[in-house]
Structures are given as C-alpha cells and as structure tokens.
Amino acid sequence: MFVLADVFDVPFKEIAETVGKSPDACRQLASRARRRVHDARPQRYSPPDDEAARVVAEMLAATTAGDIDGLVRLLAEDAVLVSDGGAHKRAARYPIKGRDRLARFLANIGKRYDTAHATLEPVALNGELGIVISLHGQREAAISFEVEDGLVREVHIIAADDKLAALDRPVDMV
Prior knowledge:
Low-confidence stretches: none
CATH class of the largest domain: Alpha Beta
Structural class: alpha+beta
Number of domains: 2
Number of strands: 6
Number of helices: 7
Strand content: 25-35%
Mean pLDDT: 81
Helix content: 40-55%
Order of helices and strands: HHHHHEEHEEEEH
Distance between the termini: 26 Å
Radius of gyration: 20 Å
Largest sheet: 6 strands, mixed
CATH architecture of the largest domain: Roll
Shape: elongated
CATH topology of the largest domain: Nuclear Transport Factor 2, Chain: A
C-alpha cells in the first residue's frame, strides 16, 4: 500500500477496493510502512567541516573558470560523477569515471552557464555539500559533492525536473 500510494500516487480509495480493506485501514498500513522505512534508513547527515566546504568552493570556482588543472588537483584519482536528467533534460548516460575525464566534463559544464544570469545556492543534499543552480529563476540542477580526505570522491548531478521539485518539500534532517 505504501508503494502504491507514495510511489505510484494511487488514491487510498482505489487501493482499499483492490485489497478489500477500508481507506482508513490502508492509510494506517501505509503510515506504519513509511515509519519502518524511515527508522531503518541510516541517518548520514552531519554538518560539513570547514575543509569540505573549502574544497567544494574551490571546485565551483575551478568549474566556472574552466580550470581543468585546478579540478584535477581537487578530485580523487578514482572520482566518479553520476547524473540524472530525467526524461526532458540532457545528462551523462553512464557514470564519468576518473579524475581527468571528470575534470574535463566539469569544465565543459562550467562553460554552459552564463554567470551573469546563473545563481548558485549552497544546500545540503543527501547529507553532502551541494549547490542548486538556477538560470533566470528556474532550477537547472542540484549537484552534491562527497568530500573525503580533502578530495572530491563523488559528484551527483540531478537535473530531472520532478526530482528538483522535491527540493521544495520539507526534509527531516536528524
């Protein structure tokens, strides 16, 4: 019921008719399932340390400047980037692996954004440091950076409109 209601957006009335229970009983079962999923999830969030914030700030500066050498210095040798554009936006189909390839990819992304019209908003995304990029008031992407030992190990880019819309929902940051 939880999956039908929360993932597929099926109304509780339809679920109740299908499973032979009342809509209230279905809501209660879904609520219990949500609680179990939440309680079983590891709580990873911790505020970023100063070094991680510095590394991310330098990554952003190097990306917008197209500074490939600067990016290489900030990326772990086995760094990886994963992106999700959804159905309507372009994104890398496969993970970008390796410091050199990733540095070139990020420098090319930096060239796409006109800094006169782009805004960068620092945020916490899935427990990692991140930014939301907006152009002309429209969200274009959310990018998170996993920093370990002073180097960026993973970059996650979300450009899918439906996932960017989730940024408006309140999140319980424990």
